[in-house]
Amino acid sequence: MNIAVGGTGYVGLSLAILLAQHNQVTAVDVIPKKVEKLNNWQSPIADTEIERFLKEASEGKRKLNLTATTSAATAYANADLVVIATPTNYDARKNFFDTHFVEQVIELVLEINPKATMVVKSTVPVGYTKSICARYPKGKFLFSPEFLREGHALYDNLHPSRIIVGTPFEDMRAEAERFASLLAEGAEDTDVPTLVMHATEAEAVKLFANTYLALRVAYFNELDTYCEVRGLDTASVVRGVCLEPRVGDFYNNPSFGYGGYCLPKDTKQLLANYQDVPQNLISAIVQSNRTRKDFVAEEIIDRCRLLKEHGVKHPLVGIYRLTMKSGSDNFRASSIQGIMKRIKAKGFQCLVYEPTLDAPDFFESEVTHNLNYFNENADIIVANRWNDDLSSVSSKVYTRDLFCRD
Ligand SMILES: NC(=O)c1ccc[n+]([C@@H]2O[C@H](COP(=O)([O-])OP(=O)(O)OC[C@H]3O[C@@H](n4cnc5c(N)ncnc54)[C@H](O)[C@@H]3O)[C@@H](O)[C@H]2O)c1
Known about the structure:
The protein is α/β, with parallel strands linked by helices. About 45% of the residues lie in helices and about 15% in strands. Strand 9, helix 8 and strand 10 form a beta-alpha-beta unit. Helix 9 crosses helix 11 and helix 12 crosses helix 13. The relative contact order is 0.09. Nicotinamide-adenine-dinucleotide binds next to helix 1 and helix 5.
């Protein structure tokens, strides 16, 4: 089958490689540098499995029928199936996802190849597929939620927790099953739980799944806030709580807040979808993340004030990594940025250690790649996640990473 994938980010690239094992795949992106890298079998993103698959393909050890292009029209013209994996950022003014990158692809496909089935893999508001079916009556659409984790994007598609495909019309069920079987064919696991459902339900699955994950992060963060204020040992409380098998000892490490590209925007979108539907919890999950960042920032600001009382005229706050997780190569919507913003609003200067950022400053704070310089000059070091880089200056470090894991 000829497949075009629009967008070569975490979602698009991992799917392009997964599907290129058994199909002819053309990956499309608007960024020429990404396309050039891919055509040289280099990954534009940090992902162990993607890098391994591309390297093996370049050495002739693995068959991948994959090419990349910026020429969307040519790619879509020849495709039986177009997978859409473009960004859906949250638009704070409209209080809704901005889906125009998805619609850019849809409109191009309808113009040059209206017979192609389009599978939206981007995360969309609940009801979106239904709305595009009305807006573009000639289009054939499916929605398939994506559950991968950044940094493990291809791994998570080779070993999927589940495959879900949503169809807006019952008469497209066979197409939905066909797409599900393409994903299953590329996976290394067999017997992957697979569900075909209405597209609106599949959209809800994605937002409810991410909001549950955000709830869990927020819960353990509020537990930690409570323990900190009341002088209790958070680690003991978490261990005790999580021995309950229905809670489980995982995904319970306190942090500065849930962050990354998906959880902050997906929770806000779900809340927006609740308009006119009674709820308390979904608002609380969104609100809880702000409260947590306020608390963490206040703890750091208190330490800065204490340093001032002890003669440090202008305490310099070291921001150890802007990334959300250890091993990550991007810092989209990372919670430490919210902490940094709050600290700076109170007049304290920051120094950022972020080796993946090729710029002299970040929001007017100096950026360094020199760890020794960073460790020596920062008066207090703020780290969402601990790293042994900080062992020699541990007395300066403020972190809530109690279990040294994501
Ligand atoms: N990152 C994740 O962990 C994750 C997980 C599940 C779902 N999602 C969802 O998947 C979607 C994509 O996320 P991502 O992290 O892969 O995004 P990304 O920003 O990493 O990649 C998107 C790519 O699309 C390209 N693009 C933009 N407009 C385009 C167009 N008109 N034609 C072709 N390419 C275009 C961009 O240049 C970029 O390379 C979002 O809706 C996101 O919410 C992301």
